[in-house]
Automatic annotation (TrEMBL):
<dbReference type="Pfam" id="PF04978">
    <property type="entry name" value="MST"/>
</dbReference>
<protein>
    <submittedName>
        <fullName>Mini-circle protein</fullName>
    </submittedName>
</protein>
<dbReference type="InterPro" id="IPR007061">
    <property type="entry name" value="MST-like"/>
</dbReference>
<dbReference type="InterPro" id="IPR034660">
    <property type="entry name" value="DinB/YfiT-like"/>
</dbReference>
């Protein structure tokens, strides 16, 4: 599988720009994982940290779910990797995790997020963030997710270099 990553436009509407940056970051995560074995995806950065590329995929599946599905569709949607509410750390434990499942779940959550954004009449669509107990806009959610991916893609840079020496975006 070859990941196609398209850079964000230099000009565009606010929505087009936010969508493009989020897609760019999603593709970056996929690129960082491309071509690795399951064992390589599970390689930890520096024990005792449980951070690995597979852990990031699982975490970002959870983040997509928490920020799109739970905010706009189903405030009570369960966590993906934990029975405890708001337990985002469970995604980092890849003991017994399978890469195929993690990528499948991540892709499904990304598709769900895309559908929510596409169907929204505007970036002012309001949803309820159950973790905060407050309403938030689609604009805020998209910006949050761009920052979430950007931060974790920085981790993915170091993780990938540690696995096989591959550097660069």
């Amino acid at each position: 599988m070859t990941v196609e990553r398209i850079g964000p436009p230099h000009f565009g509407t606010e929505r087009e720009t936010l969508r493009a940056f989020l897609e760019f970051h999603r593709a970056t995560l996929a690129m960082k994982c491309e071509g690795l074995t399951e064992e390589q995806l599970k390689e930890r950065s520096s024990p005792p940290s449980t951070l690995s590329l597979l852990a990031l995929v699982r975490h970002l599946a959870e983040a997509e779910r928490a920020w799109f599905r739970r905010v706009f569709d189903d405030n009570a949607a369960p966590m993906l990797w934990s029975e405890k509410e708001f337990d985002f750390q469970a995604a980092y434990d890849t003991t017994g995790a399978r890469a195929e499942e993690a990528f499948s779940v991540w892709q499904a959550e990304v598709e769900h997020s895309r559908r929510i954004e596409r169907e929204a009449e505007s970036l002012d669509l309001a949803g309820h963030q159950p973790r905060w107990g407050e309403d938030v806009s689609l604009r805020m959610v998209m910006l949050h997710m761009i920052l979430e991916y950007g931060r974790h893609n920085g981790h993915a840079d170091f993780l990938r270099e540690g696995v096989d020496g591959t550097v660069g975006a």
